[in-house]
Design a protein that fits this description.
alpha/beta
């Protein structure tokens, strides 16, 4: 069975994507910082009959990243790496004039440095796979200028560029930066707690990720709304 590593997998988009892959027969290595919620997620997904390994920890820790890849190797390798774990830099979001530089460093460490570190750790196994794939979860804020989203958006823009370069450097892999669009997630609620407008559930955008895995288009940046509309 194919094997996927998914970071930030205890809830939200990470959990929804993990559930969809488990239903398709994928073996999974799941990461999150919240131990109990991650264990609950892993237990639920084993109901699909696949092997699920939960590894709680912080993706900024190089030892933890090595543990994730080692766990995948024990399951058979790495066919898919999903860099989904994200940090905002400030909760709630603030204008750049008030953005803590330590908060910005945290966003860059989680969203960019740790993501690249995990790719580097997994690259030998990804290259050995017949369909090695890296998905980095992007954001509209990476491409558009929204007030208060500067730190987070800058980190996602940097991640997009790393993904684009990785796609050039590793032509045998598929490397997709995917903007999932608006979703009802804890991350968004923490970013803009006063915004009570309804938003789609993360599970509603998972078919866009599955379409990429099914059709395997060229490496690049993709928007889930366009994929869902069939464009």
């Amino acid at each position: 069975m194919p094997v996927a590593i998914i970071t930030g997998a205890s809830k939200g988009l990470g959990r929804a994507l993990a559930e969809a892959l488990a239903a398709r027969g994928w073996d999974l290595v799941l990461d999150a910082r919240t131990v109990e919620i991650l264990k609950e997620t892993a237990a639920a997904l084993t109901g699909h009959g696949t092997r699920v390994t939960a590894r709680p920890g912080d993706v900024t820790d190089p030892v933890h990243r090595s543990e994730l890849v080692a766990a995948a190797w024990r399951l058979g390798g790495v066919d898919l790496l999903v860099n989904n774990a994200s940090a905002l830099g400030a909760e709630p979001l603030v204008r750049l004039e008030g953005l803590s530089l330590d908060g910005l460093r945290r966003a860059l460490e989680v969203n960019v440095v740790a993501a690249l570190g995990l790719v580097q750790e997994a690259l030998p196994l990804l290259r050995a796979s017949e369909a090695g794939t890296v998905i980095t979860v992007s954001s509209d804020a990476a491409a558009e200028a929204y007030e208060t989203w500067g730190g987070y958006g800058a980190s996602k823009a940097a991640l997009d560029h790393l993904a684009a370069v990785l796609g050039e450097e590793e032509p045998r892999l598929r490397v997709w930066a995917v903007d999932p669009g608006d979703m009802a997630t804890d991350l968004y609620a923490a970013a803009v707690p006063e915004d009570g407008d309804p938003r789609p559930e993360p599970a509603s955008v998972v078919p866009a990720f599955l379409r990429l895995l099914d059709e395997r288009p060229a490496s690049g940046r993709y928007g889930a709304p366009s994929l869902l509309e069939g464009r």
